[in-house]
């Protein structure tokens, strides 16, 4: 048994959950479900990131205390994931007392080691923004938002001497090519570490006179901690660092999931922080691409955020999560549209999978009194379906290790296709008309019931409710409780002859796309 601790980013409480957050959270949930079924020890973490300028500003704009504001949005994230059946072992908030303790603990360690020093910083400060501006914040020398010239100011701050770890980090990345994956992001991190990238030591404090919504530095009460230094430590705090039993074992198997937008803090700041605190590095950094909506970047002003609850209400959440997992190659960008969603649901779920389930169980009701029939000896066609189940189970195991969820689903649907094709070849609706072929009909339906059990087990991490329904209809309700993937999905003959089956309604009725929906 191996330990798998799966993390999502902790989301800022300045936006409501949308398709992007939902994707990472669904991937975490799918991996967690898969590894639980594979018998691994799984600990799954998500949460919210609540400190810093950004949150203080939106709270002020809403006329609310930042704590009250953060409570409200954090609860919205938590309840959304709960409503969608995405379950976590820990929902961590950066305002939780154990997180605050963990951050202060790391700050003390790194400070004691001599990796934090106090420096004067000189820069262009915008009074409207109450912060230092970067090149990107300015147009023609004026603040982009306030259209006024920033003033030159000097401020003293604490800096984390991160650059001294760059060589060690670069060596680690060279030594373990899939540590940051897929490879394109590993190469991006290597480029960040090169001297000409301009990446310097990290300013990790904000004077309270300017911002007090943050965690106080344990060695200087006039300052709070910079929000990224604070937020990254959630991954340790959520596992019980520094003093809860068992955190080390969990930390040993940490798989971080993020999108490419936050590669720098996770690929550079975080490993440097861990090295400075003399802690082991994470297992893998898994980086996915961006969802665009109707080929445009998601943004509040475009109003194209795509609410997961609305998608659930309209199409069912299994259909939506199937689309997310099937239509994005992990690592690359992908585009969402309702038209693409509906096309995918109709083709894969209504036609392919739905038809197989309804054909098998309708004919079992009609020709076998609704119970799994006793088969005759299996022939080459039956052996072909069994081999397809074996191949699917093994390929899913390989693909899940590589985080290629879309390929895992393709493999499962090859089994669905093979079973549909087998059913067409055997055509039990014709054979049933000839009494001397009764044995063949029984064998055919028996084989399809076994295949449905394998399909149900394999689909369970991806579309849990649908999979449970398929297993229930085929009389394998308890299969999930004791199943071990991948072996159990290969086990043929596990649904015994005589087991009652149930027809049920269409799993996924075909959807007609309303004009104007897309
Ligand atoms: O960055 N496509 O929080 P955040 C795919 N608090 N994924 C997307 C996405 C999109 N269009 N938009 C958002 C933060 N995401 C920090 C993280 S972690 C210590 C601190 C997902 O609310 C994706 O996982 O901006 C991305 O990395 C994350 O939301 C950013 O969430």
Describe the overall structure.
With 518 residues, the protein is α/β, with parallel strands linked by helices. The chain has two domains: 3-288, Rossmann fold (3-Layer(aba) Sandwich), CATH 3.40.50.620; 316-327 and 337-490, Isoleucyl-tRNA Synthetase, Domain 1 (Orthogonal Bundle), CATH 1.10.730.10. The chain has 20 helices and 17 strands. The protein has helices spanning 19-37, 53-61, 66-83, 97-112, 166-175, 183-193, 227-232, 234-237, 247-252, 263-276, 308-315, 317-327, 338-368, 380-401, 405-426, 428-431, 438-459, 464-473, 479-482, 487-490, and strands at 3-12, 41-49, 90-93, 116-126, 131-132, 138-139, 142-143, 151-160, 180-181, 202-203, 205-207, 216-217, 220-225, 254-259, 284-288, 291-293, 334-336. The strands form five sheets. Strands 3-2-1-14-15-9 form a six-stranded parallel sheet, with helices on both faces. Strands 5-4-8-10 form a four-stranded antiparallel sheet. Strand 1 (3-12), helix 1 (19-37) and strand 2 form a beta-alpha-beta unit. The two termini are 45 Å apart. Ligand ME8 binds at residues 9-12, 20-21, 23-24, 49, 231-232, 234, 258-259, 261-262, 290-291, 298.
Radius of gyration: 27 Å
Using DSSP, what is the number of strands? 17
- Number of helical runs? 20
Q: Find the CATH superfamily of the largest domain.
A: HUPs
Largest sheet, described in full?
6 strands, parallel
Output the CATH class name of the largest domain: Alpha Beta
The helix fraction, in percent, is 40-55%
Low-confidence spans: pLDDT under 50, at least 5 residues? Answer: none
Give me the CATH architecture of the largest domain, please: 3-Layer(aba) Sandwich
């Amino acid at each position: 048994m191996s330990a798998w601790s799966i993390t999502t980013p902790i989301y800022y409480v300045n936006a409501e959950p949308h398709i992007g957050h939902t994707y990472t959270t669904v991937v975490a949930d799918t991996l967690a479900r898969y590894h639980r079924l594979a018998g691994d020890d799984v600990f799954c973490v998500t949460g919210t990131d609540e400190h810093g300028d950004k949150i203080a500003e939106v709270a002020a704009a809403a006329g609310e205390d930042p704590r009250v504001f953060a409570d409200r949005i954090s609860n919205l994230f938590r309840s959304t994931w709960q409503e969608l059946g995405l379950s976590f072992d820990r929902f961590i908030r950066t305002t939780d007392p154990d997180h605050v303790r963990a951050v202060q603990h790391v700050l003390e360690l790194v400070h004691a080691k001599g990796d934090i020093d106090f420096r004067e910083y000189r820069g262009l400060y915008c009074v409207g923004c109450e912060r230092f501006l970067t090149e990107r914040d300015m147009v023609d020398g004026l603040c982009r938002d306030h259209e006024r010239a920033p003033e030159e100011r000097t401020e003293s701050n604490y800096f984390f001497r991160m650059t001294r770890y760059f060589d060690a980090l670069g060596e680690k990345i060279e030594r373990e090519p899939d540590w940051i994956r897929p490879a394109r992001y590993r190469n991006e991190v290597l480029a960040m570490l090169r001297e000409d990238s301009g990446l310097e030591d990290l300013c990790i404090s904000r004077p309270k006179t300017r911002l007090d919504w943050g965690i106080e530095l344990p060695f200087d009460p006039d300052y709070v901690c910079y929000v990224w230094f604070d937020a990254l430590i959630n991954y340790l705090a959520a596992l019980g660092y520094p003093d809860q039993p068992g955190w080390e074992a969990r930390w040993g198997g940490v798989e971080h999931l993020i999108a490419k937008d936050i590669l720098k803090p996770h690929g550079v700041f975080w490993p440097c922080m861990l090295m400075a605190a003399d802690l082991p590095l994470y297992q893998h950094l898994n980086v996915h691409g961006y969802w665009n909506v109707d080929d445009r970047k998601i943004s509040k002003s475009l109003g194209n955020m795509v609410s997961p609850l609305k998608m659930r209400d309209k199409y069912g959440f299994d259909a939506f999560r199937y689309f997310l997992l099937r239509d994005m190659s992990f690592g690359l960008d992908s585009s969402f549209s309702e038209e693409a969603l509906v096309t995918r649901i109709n083709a894969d779920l209504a036609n392919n999978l739905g038809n197989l389930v309804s054909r098998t169980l309708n004919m079992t009701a009609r020709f076998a009194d609704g119970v799994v029939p006793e088969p005759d000896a299996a022939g080459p066609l039956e052996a072909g379906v069994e081999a397809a189940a074996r191949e699917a189970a093994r390929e899913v195991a390989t693909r899940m290790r590589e985080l290629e969820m879309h390929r895992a689903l393709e493999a499962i649907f090859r089994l669905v296709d093979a079973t549909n094709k087998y059913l067409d070849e055997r055509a039990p609706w014709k054979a049933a008309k000839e009494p001397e072929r009764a044995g063949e009909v029984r064998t055919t339906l028996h084989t399809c019931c076994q295949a449905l059990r394998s399909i149900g087990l394999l689909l369970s991490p991806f579309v849990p409710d649908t999979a449970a329904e398929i297993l229930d209809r085929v009389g394998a309700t308890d299969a999930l409780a004791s199943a071990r993937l991948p072996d159990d999905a290969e086990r043929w003959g596990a649904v015994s002859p005589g087991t009652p089956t149930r027809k049920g309604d269409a799993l996924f009725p075909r959807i007609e796309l309303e004009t104007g929906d897309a």
